[in-house]
Design a protein that fits this description.
4-stranded antiparallel sheet; 2 helices; about 20% helix
């Protein structure tokens, strides 16, 4: 009977410690994203959140829509923002009437409110390319997160690369030329144990004490 009780208590303790470890690896993170224009070869300096036409020959434009909402949790996939490509004067690829974008870079800034508003950025670069109403060969390649201030601690932000910019007639339900920038955020920090977890640990320790006390009396 004593062995059976010891096994039971050990199982309770093991389950409690497992749940505590699981909760510690799922720290809730609150963060936001913002885009800051950094360079436009041939197009001059741009304004934050907007990219000029990069010398397009048919009135094309590529803009970046900031993610206006603060996000929380530790999702496996997040939307860091949207690039929208438009070209009202572009014809189809078959007509060879389109626009040309010169090389450019773009800075996507991350702010992590959970870790004291730590900030960093992903630097995206593109060699540019041709754009038609039904085709686009613009691709943005992203580097690793560069920390500029604060400490992200155990929080890890990542971005999927590359980001192919879809044609003006693609994306969204009605073909709005919308390309989402996808990434992930994870954390392996030390979370405060939840009350339920503490209850399991306390119950297990209490049970272990009862078993040892009875064993001592015997």
């Amino acid at each position: 009977m004593t062995i059976r009780r010891c096994v039971h208590v050990a199982l309770v303790l093991g389950a409690a410690l497992f749940l505590m470890a699981a909760s510690a690896s799922a720290v809730s993170i609150t963060y936001s994203t913002s885009g800051v224009f950094t360079l436009c070869s041939g197009g001059g300096q741009g304004t934050p959140g907007c990219i000029p036409s990069f010398g397009a020959t048919a009135g094309a434009s590529l803009t970046y829509a900031l993610n206006p909402n603060s996000n929380s949790g530790v999702p496996s996939g997040i939307n860091l923002g949207d690039f929208v490509l438009t070209c009202p004067s572009c014809g189809t690829a078959a007509s060879l009437s389109g626009a040309f974008f010169q090389a450019f870079t773009f800075r996507l800034t991350i702010t992590d409110a959970t870790d004291g508003n730590a900030t960093g950025y992903f630097l995206g670069s593109s060699t540019g390319g041709n754009v038609y109403s039904d085709a686009s060969n613009i691709i943005i390649n992203w580097g690793s997160l560069v920390t500029t201030s604060g400490n992200f601690g155990s929080t890890v932000f990542a971005i999927y690369t590359p980001t192919p910019i879809v044609a003006p007639n693609s994306g969204c339900p009605l073909g709005c030329g919308d390309t989402t920038v996808q990434g992930t955020v994870n954390s392996s920090g030390n979370a405060v144990p939840e009350p339920a977890t503490l209850g399991l640990i306390g119950g297990g320790l209490l049970g272990l004490g009862v078993v040892l006390r009875r064993k001592k009396r015997a």
